[in-house]
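Researcher: We plan to redesign the surface later, but first we want a full-length starting point. Tokens attached.
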């Protein structure tokens, strides 16, 4: 891969999922670094009005609407994600698509030798080995935007020694202190009221069920090539320490900062170097106050153990877990099932899923579709 900075030009960026929470944050970061980065392509999901505003502001060479109607200037359909991800002027693809829909763009970008700044953790959960093979075959590289994984990478980057253990932090979500008997009837508004992070709806509900943390354990397994026994999770309600990394001598490094996705986004664009950014809120230990850590309530939030078990089972099981979770979260957001049924739907789907090797996109997609069918039956 040519280094475009060395060649004297700005690095071209595509933002997929540009009108979502991460996409909007990415544009804020890019706006502060227009001398370093050139926004080449924007693809939104279905929010045409917000996309039109972004196009008017940025005049990208390519714009698309993945789930909506285009016109002479706006491409449409899922292939617009691929066209943006493989655009010849693009060096870095920010993949902030929500859910399984992001997989093809991740694979295409890596095959085309791009850096993928990955917020779409589902890509790795569904097809971690295929994603790694695409990077190796095409010369692309994968840099996480997820805050915990960005933290791990930042702790590892200056170390010559592989880690012995990762400890991902979890805020615990809005229901961290709720008694078990109240959880089943938690409302959508309550689930979306996250205490520390402002995020999109799907990941916010995943944070409330702790399914998000299971997705992140699987993501860490594939990104950092560590076994599941070497990846722990601790609840840290302040969300100031994003991850801790243990080395063979027992020493532990942590990465800290006030919760904002702009830090991980900027780092994914610039890794392994750092750019000055006066727009980033400076850390203040006194304002941060106390840091506390506690165990996860695994029995109260069973989606976590279900997800990690699917990760350990391997093959297509994580793809089935992801699909079941997406279907259940959608049903919860549409008030078709109560909060407490989300993990029950996942459980029912996984108990019917027969995992096979996840050695082709077709196998992964088949597992994904079957799990969604099982989920529909479990929801009905
Ligand atoms: Mg995260």
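Model: Full-length starting sequence:
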């Amino acid at each position: 891969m040519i280094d475009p900075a060395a060649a004297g030009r700005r690095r071209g960026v595509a933002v997929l999922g540009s009108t979502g929470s991460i996409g909007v944050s990415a544009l804020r970061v890019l706006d502060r670094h227009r001398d370093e980065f050139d926004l080449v392509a924007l693809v939104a999901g279905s929010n045409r009005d917000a996309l039109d505003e972004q196009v008017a502001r940025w005049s990208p060479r390519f714009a698309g609407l993945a789930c909506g109607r285009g016109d002479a200037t706006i491409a449409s359909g899922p292939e617009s994600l691929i066209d943006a991800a493989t655009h010849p002027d693009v060096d870095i693809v920010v993949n902030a698509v929500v859910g399984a829909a992001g997989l093809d763009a991740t694979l295409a970008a890596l095959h085309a030798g791009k850096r993928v700044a990955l917020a779409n953790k589902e890509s790795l959960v569904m097809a971690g080995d295929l994603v790694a093979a695409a990077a190796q075959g095409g010369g692309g590289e994968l840099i996480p935007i997820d805050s915990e994984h960005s933290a791990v990478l930042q702790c590892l980057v200056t170390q010559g020694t592989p880690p012995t253990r990762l400890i991902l932090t979890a805020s615990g979500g809005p229901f961290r202190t709720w008694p078990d008997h109240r959880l089943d009837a938690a409302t959508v508004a309550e689930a979306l009221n996250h205490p520390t992070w402002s995020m999109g709806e799907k990941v916010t509900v995943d944070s409330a069920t702790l399914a998000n943390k299971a997705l992140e354990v699987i993501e860490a397994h594939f990104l950092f090539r560590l076994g599941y026994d070497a990846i722990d999770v601790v609840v840290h309600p302040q969300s100031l320490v994003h991850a801790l990394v243990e080395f063979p001598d027992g020493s532990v490094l942590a990465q800290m900062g006030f919760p904002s996705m702009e830090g991980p986004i900027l780092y994914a664009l610039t890794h392994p170097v750092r750019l000055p950014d006066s727009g980033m809120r400076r850390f203040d230990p006194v304002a941060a106050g106390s840091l506390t850590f506690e165990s996860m309530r695994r029995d109260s939030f069973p989606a976590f153990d279900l997800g990690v078990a699917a990760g350990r089972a391997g093959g297509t099981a994580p793809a089935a877990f992801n699909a079941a979770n997406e279907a259940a979260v959608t049903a919860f957001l549409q008030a078709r099932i109560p909060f407490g049924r989300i993990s029950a739907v996942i459980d029912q789907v996984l108990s019917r899923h027969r995992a096979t090797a996840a050695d082709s996109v077709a196998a992964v997609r088949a597992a994904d579709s079957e799990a969604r069918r099982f989920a529909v039956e479990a929801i009905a």
